[in-house]
Amino acid sequence: MIHWIDAALIVIYLAVLLVVALTGLRRKEGSQESLILAGRKLTLPAFVATLVSTWYGGILGVGEFSYLHGLSNWLVFGLPYYLAALIFALFLARRARSSPEMTIPDRLAKFYGPAATVAGSMVLIIVTLPAAYVLMIGVLFNQFFGFPVWAGIIFGTFFSIFYVMTGGFRAVLWTDIVQFVLMFVGFMVLLSFAVFKLGGLDYLQSSVPETHFSATGGNSLGYIALWYIIALATLVEPAFYQRCFAAKSVGVARRGIFVSILFWIFFDFMTTFCGLYARALLPDLADPVAAYPALAMEILPIGLLGVFLLSLLATIMSTVDSYIFLAATTISHDLIWRFRRFGEDKIRQFTALGLVISSLATITIALLSDSVVEIWHDFGSVGTPALLLPLVTSYWGRYQFSGRGAFLSIVLSALLTVAALFYPKFSGVDDYLFGIRPIFVGLAVSAVIFLFSRKLKPVDLQ
After folding, report:
1. Tens-digit pLDDT profile for residues 137-165
2. What's domain 4-370's superfamily in CATH?
């Protein structure tokens, strides 16, 4: 349990989010483009703030890895994603912003037809459900206030959909700006106190295992290489596409990603060293997932502890609101509207319905799960192979799937990946079939279908 002053700061933060979000009620979004993309007027500062904060929701997982493996956090959870984001900026950002689409399924519909669109939409709904992140909120509320984890999960989910429901993507943007500031301020405070109270590099090198200052952190090269494949999920990341679709110009989209990479590098510097300080000060921590909160409770005074806890909460909530809104708009725009063609005046109503559906699914998955990392692994393993080749080849390259090929690729790669994921659970063995990780099964299936169903794309097609 934390001091009432620190708890009061968290309550004030939640109240500020509500005030920011309720301003969305003053502006009635009259069109889908306005609700989903804020009118495509996203400026560079807003683009950077929302992308940086949204893409860094797994803060407790980062704390666990840096506590256990030290500097290799940069090599495993940093560099692969910087490179993937750079590839997106160089090869996809301009094409995404130049296209008229509002969502990824819009792109699938344009190139592959309704069957592939429905299949892709279903995959996107699954991978954007923020179950891992509301589970983290439940854990934090349990640590902060002593609430049951299930109560924190339900509160965090419904609090997020309330302010998203009032203002759509515009509300997400404004709250992300607040959360962007808090996430950096909190870790600056924690790292500064760690350096001044505990010592610098000499203290760390004498207090943590030698492997924590090695490039691999004691992990195998094969394990590290796997994360460079997993990071390809960035190329089908709905949050990236939504921000690019919403950017004011092509220049904002490309420069925004470049600037965001610099912010992620700096933030990873702080989170990695905070993890090292947690390992040095608390070498026998029972649960490494709690590395950051445990370090903060040891070294930060009342008041500043609340500021840091706000940083953790803001980092997670910025991802919850963005992803739950993406899942909701996939339901309202890409499934309901695409086949019912309701009037623009009903977009809020159907998006609200999408928010309720996605919230209930998110809560259910979170309540049935024990591991944040397991949710990341399983959901990411399905989404990347199902969408990577159909989506990327629609933007870049002279060859693309046929409509039937795209549908088969999405469905079969997703289903076979799920089968590979569940194989150890139902077969009673401790490893995947033939030792092959599920993501590679799905990618192989998609690649084979692509080779047999590709067709030449006109060179000037955007």
Report:
1. 998 888 888 889 999 999 989 888 877 87
2. Sodium/glucose cotransporter (1.20.1730.10)
